[in-house]
Amino acid sequence: MLELTSLSRLFTGYTPDKAQDIEFQCKTIALIAYVAAPTAAVFSIINFVAGYYELALLEISAILLLIPCFMVVSHTSWLPFVRNLLMTNACILFMALFLYGGEGASGITWSLMIPFIAFLLTGLPAGWYWSLSYAVVMSALIFAHFSGFVSLPYDETFLIFFPATFIFFAFIAAVLEVQLERIHERHQSLLLNLEDLVDVKTKEFQEVRDKLFAEMNEHNKTIGNLKAAEAQFLHAQRMESLGTLVAGLAHDFNNMLVGISGNIYLAKKNSGNKVEVRERLENVENLSAGAADMVKQLLTFARKDPMEMNVFSLTSFCKEILKLAQIAIPENISFTYNISSKELFIKGDITQLQQLIMNLLNNARDAVVDVSAPKIYFQLEPFTADNAFNEKYPEYENKDFVRLSVSDNGCGIPEEERKAVFEPFYTTKSAGKGTGLGLPMVSGSVVNHMGKIEVESEEGKGTTFIIYLPIYEGPTGGTQIFL
Questions:
Q1: What number of CA atoms fall less than 13 Å from residue 81's CA on the CB side?
Q2: Which of 94, 120, 316, 419 gives the lowest tally of CB atoms within 10 Å of its CB?
Q3: How many angstroms separate the CA atoms of 121 and 114, rounded?
């Protein structure tokens, strides 16, 4: 059953304005035009055959006036004009049918369609304006008929009750329009609720998806860290095994060198004035000293070399070392440095750190040999661990470090070779120009001092070695400061 919330809905409608959206109204008008045009064409033919030529011409005119109705779908701004045009067209056509009667005097019954068309096209309350206006004109014609001014082809009894019948049909049309608007309103409300529900569910889905992606990324990151840790562990294990082997060989070799050195000393003492023999023995002695230095580097790499740890200012220490380094670096190489004015104290082995710095500078010197404008840059500065550093080296509790870097504009290190630069006996230098122990010794010294070493290099542009050493946080009274 049709239910209305109040009688006023019959006059005001379910919503303040027509409930249907513009697109729906345009499609409705186009549908009415598609139905009305062939219908009017058929009746124009019937009326023309029956001799109602004026009525047939009027119906043909109505068909022509329906043309804008077909175009309103693509031109929605025409809606108000087309709606009023269609209603005017319908009122004129049905009023003409009312006057002429048509075949079988059935023209009057078409007037009952006016309320349905009016409410369907214009809604409430505009539909009432059209319906009542039509009813007033129709009642005036009926009154004129009874007054003898016009003659209508209908039974007079039927004419007396027809206005009431028209109003009754208008109420039925209003009830149907209210229900239609009410259904449409509920439909729109359901659509809005559905859209809100879809938005909520979509948001929940996106949150779940983002959470899943975050967990997947975290999982992949964890797997990557595990693989990196596994590779690091295997490398450390391999290096430890190699270090143990190297340490054993170095000690045995060192014992042989002690014996060789002793015998050289005795041979030199007994050589007398034989200059040639003495020179050859000195050459052997120099080679033995070089071999002894190599053994020392092997022991440093293997971390078996005895260390004497002292607290001292690395700032002053570097200033003294660089004075010596400038002598070893050719004049054609631009050597610049930037040392912090702040005294940076560390706890370390002076001999190992001296070898470490000299090895890095010697490597930089060799790397720029073939460069047209060779440059070496040394820097020492304080460094406070940031988030990136903590994520990279989570094992460190220290926040304050000394950052020492040596840069050159040499040939650079190919990416595939960077991981191998700290391997013992690995070198990119030509035969006789490198032992492959300089950088392994540097790496071993950094590890001995609880530090970290990084390599940044771009092939053809140069290389930078960066070393982080923890700053000594204890008392520094009585420590060595090199001046």
A1: 12
A2: 419
A3: 10
Count, residues in the chain: 483
Report the alpha-carbon distance of residue 277 to residue 254 in Å, rounded: 25
| Contact in structure between 92 and 58 (CB atoms under 8 Å) | yes
Distance from the Cα of residue 139 to its chain's centroid: 73
Check pLDDT > 80 for residue 426.
no
Query: Is residue 355 within 8 Å of 480, Cβ to Cβ?
Result: no
Q: For residue 385, list its beta bridge partners.
A: none
Report the C-alpha gap between 174 and 122 in whole angstroms.
11
Asked if 345 and 477 touch (Cβ cutoff 8 Å), the reply is no
- 3 state DSSP class of 377: strand
Asked if pLDDT for residue 3 goes beyond 50, the answer is: no
Domains of the chain: 9-201 (no CATH), 306-470 (3.30.565.10)
Mean pLDDT, rounded, of the chain: 78
| Strands, E assignment, 245-364 | 309-313, 334-339, 345-349
Q: What is the pLDDT of residue 483?
A: 45
The CA–CA distances, whole Å, from 98 to 95, 116, 161, 363 equal 5, 17, 15, 112
List beta partners, residue 454: 466
The token duo for 182 is 């009410």
Of residues 229 and 91, the one with the higher pLDDT is 91
SS3 475: coil
Quickly state the pLDDT bin for 378 (edges 50, 70, 90). Answer: very high
User: Which tokens go with 322?
Assistant: 């660089």
Helices of type H across 271-309: 275-301
Report which DSSP code applies to 382: E
Looking at residue 17, what is its pLDDT? 46
